[in-house]
Amino acid sequence: MTRRFVEIYETSLGEYHPNVATGLHNLATLYHMQADYDAAEPVYRRALSIREKSLGADHPDTVKLIKNLATLMQSTIEKKKQPSLANGIGVNYGQLEVVELPEEGLLRQEQDA
């Protein structure tokens, strides 16, 4: 649905209108929250290009988008560093949270209690 809004904005307002950038930013954020980093990055970059051209590099909306893109890049790096489930570590890809399992001794102590 968000993609359709972007298409409507592009058709009615023009390809480089700030509202097109806002729609793209929202779409990229959606992909980012779904951990679809490969889809999010090019959309963030296109939105950034439009914002820089239409609003300037120092505009608060442009700065916010740059911060979101930086967060995406960090998430991408962290995802690549995460160990697999085969290594005994649970991974929640929805939130990119690594959950380490307790050491074996800790499990025995809890069972004895």
What does this structure look like?
The chain is mostly helical and 113 residues long. It folds into two domains: 80 residues, Serine Threonine Protein Phosphatase 5, Tetratricopeptide repeat; 31 residues, no CATH class. Helix content is 68%, strand content 7%. It has five helices and two strands. It has a two-stranded antiparallel sheet. Strand 1 and strand 2 form a beta hairpin. It is flat.
Task: Summarize the entry for a quick read.
With 113 residues, this protein is mainly alpha-helical. It has 5 helices and 2 strands, in the order H-H-H-H-E-E-H.
SSE map:
Elements: H1 2-13, H2 18-33, H3 37-54, H4 60-81, E1 89-92, E2 97-100, H5 104-112
Antiparallel strand pairs: 1-2
CATH topology of the largest domain: Serine Threonine Protein Phosphatase 5, Tetratricopeptide repeat
* Envelope shape: flat
> Which residue ranges are poorly predicted, with pLDDT under 50 across at least 5 consecutive positions?
85-93, 107-113
Give the name of the CATH superfamily of the largest domain: Tetratricopeptide repeat domain
Number of helices: 5
